[in-house]
Amino acid sequence: MAQEKEKKMRIIKFILKIFIVQIILSAFFLPCYALEKATHFEINEYIAKHKIGEFSLDQYLKEQLGFQEGVHKIIEQFEGQKIDDNPPKIFRWLGYGGKKEDEPFLLRSVRHFHNPLNTWDKAGLKGIWDSSIIWGQRTDQWPGGHYSWQDVRGYFLLALTSEDQTTRDYYFAETFRGLGQQMHLIEDASVPLHTRDDIHIIFNYEGWVKKVQEKESDTFRDWLADSGRYGYDKSVLNIAPNPLAPIPIARIIDTDKYNGDNPGITIDESIGIAEYSNANFFTKDTKFGDFPSPNWDNVQCVDYEIQDPRDSSTMVFRPYYKKNIDPPAPDGDTGYRLATVGYLYDYANRYFPSYISNVRLGFCMC
Ligand SMILES: [Zn+2]
Fold it and tell me: What are residue 74's DSSP bridge partners?
């Protein structure tokens, strides 16, 4: 009897431990993942409603599908499609898809990484999870439904060919949601964290973008309106397919041209967005030495005048690493602030250079 009681207590304690760990993990991860979804939502809706490069979804829907209201056409929701935002217009379905690609919690988002310097079968997060390119072309996606490129094309076919209106509407909703989920994968590849294998817990770039989206909405909209900066060159779709994910859309993320030794190619040629973000930026946990580029030869230390964070009425100088304008060799994009110079490093370098080892001595002379 006592043994039985002890066994029960052990089971209860075990369940309690799991519960507590779950709560801690939720508190830890939720802020960054939840915030990120709202950004995908707004980006997708914007793209759906505006002409990007030569393409306008609104015009396509009017001219090719005969939808007079274009992206404002309402596609009703059905059981299992719980869109929160009403009325469910087409542009909203794309936004919804952008958000849903990160659900359920963590289980899809760990497949949203692609390091272009690895072979695609090892390019995912820590080489363990699927690369986002492979994930986007897997017809056995689980959990969270099936929204691979092939699945979404299949929904589009059913939307166009099914006999009754209800079935057609159901598949149109799935098509536009799925398109939003595919867009999410490309958007993530623009984020250096997602292409430099950095899991980005707590504060991260995506959290900062969300802060701008919430607190400086005009600035965020200005970024979206600068659509000339986020189109892609269609010629990349003609590059020979990589058998690991052969559908040409993969090339928008990775053209297999950048190999770590040739960062100049990321601005000289049409390139995958993951190659550009990997070669030209740092992340919190990947700086000098973690990836071939950017490296010490690509930066110079420059003092920028910024608002004093302790007193907004005065200005102070702050050293930053700036991507070189005149590099010794082609080395990718130039002319912007890459990272702040660490104050401790800067102080030690100025006054105690002999104490610094394993870093480039005398580098920061500003
Ligand atoms: Zn994601």
Answer: 89
User: Is-contact 274 197, C-beta < 8 A?
Assistant: no
Pairing of strands 337-340, 311-323: antiparallel
User: How far is ligand 1, taken at its centre, from the CA of residue 110, in Å?
Assistant: 8
Centre of ligand 1 from the C-alpha of residue 63, in Å: 32
| 340 and 320 Cβ atoms separated by less than 8 Å | yes
Question: 4 alpha carbon to ligand 1 midpoint, in Å?
Answer: 47
Tell me, in angstroms, the distance from the centre of ligand 1 to residue 213's CA: 17
| pLDDT confidence band for 211 (50 / 70 / 90) | confident
pTM, whole model, 2 decimals? 0.85
Instruction: Give, as one character, the DSSP assignment of residue 245.
Output: S
Instruction: Give the model confidence (pLDDT) of 32-66 as tens digits.
Output: 433 378 999 999 999 999 999 889 999 999 999 99
Under DSSP, the state recorded for 70 is: G
Indicate if the pLDDT at residue 7 is higher than 70.
no
**Long-range contact list for 165-168, CB < 8 A, 24+ apart?**
166/78
Please tell me the distance between residue 212's alpha carbon and the centre of ligand 1 in angstroms. 18
Integer Cα distance of 308 and 306 in angstroms: 6
Distance 66 CA to ligand 1 centre (A): 33
For tokens 């991260």, name the residue: 204
